[in-house]
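Fold it.
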Amino acid sequence: MAFHIIIFDEAQAVKNILADTTAAVRRLKGRFKLTLTGTPLENHLGEYFSVIDLCVPGLLGEHDRFKTQLKRGDGRTLERMLRRTRPFILRRTKTEILHDLPPKIESEVFLDLTDRQKALYRQTVAQVRSTIDEAYRTKTSGQAQLIALTAILKLRQVCLSPRLLTNRDDEPSPKLRFLMERLSVLLEEGHSALVFSQFTGFLDLVEESCSGHQLPYHRLDGSTEATARKGLVAAFQTGDRPSVFLLSLKAGGQGLNLTKASYVFHLDPWWNPAVESQASDRAHRIGQQRTVSIVRILMRHSIEEKMMALKQRKLELYEAVMSGAVRGSGQSLLTKTDFEFLLSPSAQ
């Protein structure tokens, strides 16, 4: 069936050009195609290629050739890509079109690891370093990167709560304690809040604490049925009293209107600031009447501090593509040197 016009909303869903979903979408026939997205690239320029090639096929050439040019890392691929795609892109920021939108205030709160966390963290670093070294010695770089990312998940879990690794109920979590204190005060003052984490296991602990502190809450993650999502959003938005919405970053980070919230908490950093920003904008969007406060809770002298530094590189790549200013080569995948940096001891 041939269409006159096809509009692809949330087009970052087909950022992987090799995925089955992307292949299915690309089979649709239309005279004019338009892609809409707030995050046209999240990790590397291959994702941007996929989104652009969907609406303007062939503009950037063949994917294999583009990938080869990108690997050279000389910056010319990025410059040529920006020059070719600029006439086909319309970018609108909220500051340009939403003049009445209240401000968004972003802050970072740094907490100290407990003695128990420090001991477990050092022990885990040794295990993870050994795993990563072995992976880069015996696997391809792509396989080694995947193994490394999986291995450092344990360090990120230690920062949230040792319970995620030990399953012991008596493990303290500074993040959980801080969050409950803040939420209790905010709800009393009439504020609702969104709480994001990438770890559903930690959302379980937050949910348990909300129940223990008798804080009203809703929850949405990847296991939530599609039919239940609308009901949860409506219950949060129209409830008579302020409440907390617990959300996984992937499932709750896009497509939801949650303007009842005036506070957003990110419990763990994600590699890409554009993804975090899109999640925060569930509250900071049309219909919001209050100033929105975005709070990132981070553990001092940990992998989370190092992740914030590496995230800046992703932000620079995103801004280069969006503004047309060429900086770097367009490569933004984590390297072995990056993993060594993440595992290096911090000054304490």
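The chain has 16 helices and eight strands.
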